[in-house]
Amino acid sequence: xxxxxxxxxxxxxxxxxxxxxxxxxxxTYAVEDEMQRVARFxxxxxxxxxxxxxxxxxxxxxxxxxGSKARGVDLRRARIVSEPVTSYIRYExxxxxxxxxxxxxxxxxxxxxxxxxxxPGADFWLFDRRRVLFNHFTGDGGWLGNELISDDPALxxxxxxxxxxxxxxxxxxxxxxxx
Length: 179
Hints:
Elements: H1 6-15, E1 19-24, H2 35-44, H3 49-54, H4 56-70, E2 74-81, H5 87-101, E3 105-110, H6 111-114, E4 123-127, E5 131-137, E6 143-149, H7 153-169, E7 171-172
Helix pairs in contact: 1-4
């Protein structure tokens, strides 16, 4: 396992021609670059999206999404969440407009509606329905690393099928209200 650098992420997206699909399945993430933003949200109940969009740790990602969208890449993110949602999911929900302004389409699926779906055991990105990037986390949401698999068409099909099954059941961000 490795942790991709911003340059490696850029390469994945610049090589991507058609679609970048992201499935998130955790109720809590505890990654270092978000800790201060999460703490502010927990203290205030709101996020300063303008300031976040300008912050270096977010702006490079938003620029990458905008550039990918401008090239015609279909950017979709689906989130499976337990309800009532955790405070972290409320934080994510409050920040989702930034993802959408950068070109991502985002949907939410309550975990109870995902119970009958066959899903991979980790969050993933699927690029052009051929490259799978698993994101691995500890039990409490800490970061472990990425695992890129470029040579397994059967795995890419499993991930694509799982993503589309979630997408079909999920609620668009504008219509979802966290319970």
